[in-house]
Amino acid sequence: MPTPKQASRGVMARGDYVSSVPTTSPGLLPKPPPSTDHEVRFPPVPNAIDYLRSVSNDLRCDPPSPRKLKYVVLHLHAAAEVLLKARLAQVHWTQVFRDPGAASREHYESGNFESCTLTKTLERLQKIAGVTVDARAAKSLTILAAWRNKLLHHGLHPISTREIETRVGQVLDFLIDFIRAELLPAVPEREVDFANCKLRLTSYMALQVPVCRATRLARLQGELALVTDRTLACPVCGEWALVTGDGDRPLACRFCHARWSRPTTALVSWMKVNWGSANQRPLATCPQCGTNDALLDVGVLLADAPSLSRSLCGSCGITRNRTVCDGCGVWYTSARARFVLFGDQCAACRPADHARS
C-alpha cells in the first residue's frame, strides 16, 4: 500500500488537482497574508491606457496564441470605446449617454449610466465634433465591436488569425493618430499631466507591435515616396519618416509623431543618435533660404539613397552630395559615379587625367 507521500506523487504525475496544504504539518492551514485595503481607481484616460498596454503586451508574442488574440479583441475594443468617448465628452458630457436628453450629472460622475455604443460614438464624433474617421478605420472598429459582442454574449466562430491581426493593426494605427490629434491637446482636468506622458508612451509601445508597424508603414508608403530626397531616419523610432524642408517651424515624424520645435533641434537629435555627439560638426546658415543653424553640410543620409553622404538644410530641404576624400580626409562635393575606380577622392587627390574629365 503506498504511503501518503507516494500517493501524492502519483496524483501529481497524473496532473490531477492537488491542494497546496503543507504535508509537514497535517491539519494546519497556512496563514493568510495580512489584509491590505487599496483604492481601485481608473479614470477614463488611464483606463484606456491600461487596456492598450495589455493589447501591446499580448501582441508581442510571435505568433500570438488564440487565447491572447481573444483578449486583444476584448481589450482593444474597450480601449477604443473609452478613448472615443473621452473625446466625445469634451464636446459635452451628456453626449456619452445613450439618451443625452435623459443625462444626469450625478450619474455621469459616478459612471452609473448606460452609455452610447461604439458605432453611435463614431457617428456623434463625426457629426458633432467634426472628427475625421476614414472608412477603413470605421469598418475595422465596427467589425471589432461585432467580435467583442460575440465573445461576451455567445462565442466567436472560427476566424483566421490573419484577419484578426489585420483589423487589430488598422484600429491601432487609427488610435495612434486619434490620440495625438484629438486627445493630447486637451485631456480632462487633473489627468492632463499623466495623460500627456502616459498616452505618448503607450502609443509608442503600440508602434512596436509588428502588425501595427507593418500596417502603418504600408499606409504611409505612398506619401513618403514623394519626399524621399529630404527624409531622415527618425532619431526616436528609426523609421525613414522624418520629413524636412517645410520651413523653419515645428516638425514631427510621420510614423511615431515624435516632435521637434524646429529643424535645428531635429538635426541635433539626429547627430546625437547617428554620430554619438552633436559637437562634431556645427550647423551653418543655409545659402539657399538663409535660415540660421539649419544646414548640416556633411554626412547626412537620406531615404532615397541611404548610403550616399550629403548636406541637408532642414528648413528648405536642399541637398548636395558630400563625402570624405579617401586621400586627404576632407569633405567635398562628390560625383561618385564618375570616379568609382579611384574610390572617393577630391579634385586635389584624384589622378590628373581623371580630374580633368
What does this structure look like?
This protein is of the alpha+beta class and 357 residues long. It has helices at 4-14, 44-59, 66-91, 105-110, 118-129, 135-153, 161-183, 192-207, 210-225, 263-275, 352-355, and strands at 231-233, 240-243, 251-252, 259-260, 295-302, 305-313, 319-324, 331-333. The strands form three sheets. A four-stranded antiparallel beta sheet has the order 5-6-7-8. A two-stranded antiparallel sheet has the order 1-2. The radius of gyration is 29 Å and the shape is elongated. The protein starts with a helix and ends with a helix.
**Class based on secondary structure composition and strand pairing:** alpha+beta
- Beta-strand proportion: 5-15%
Shape descriptor: elongated
* Gyration radius, rounded: 29 Å
Largest sheet descriptor: 4 strands, antiparallel
Strand-and-helix sequence, N→C? Answer: HHHHHHHHHEEEEHEEEEH
For the record, give the distance between the C-alpha atoms at the N and C termini, rounded to a whole number. Answer: 100 Å
The pLDDT mean sits at 81
Number of strands: 8
Summarize the SSE layout with pairings.
Blueprint (H helix, E strand, L loop, with lengths): L3 H11 L29 H16 L6 H26 L13 H6 L7 H12 L5 H19 L7 H23 L8 H16 L2 H16 L5 E3 L6 E4 L7 E2 L6 E2 L2 H13 L19 E8 L2 E9 L5 E6 L6 E3 L18 H4 L2
Antiparallel strand pairs: 1-2, 3-4, 5-6, 6-7, 7-8
Provide a brief overview of the structure.
The chain is of the alpha+beta class and 357 residues long.
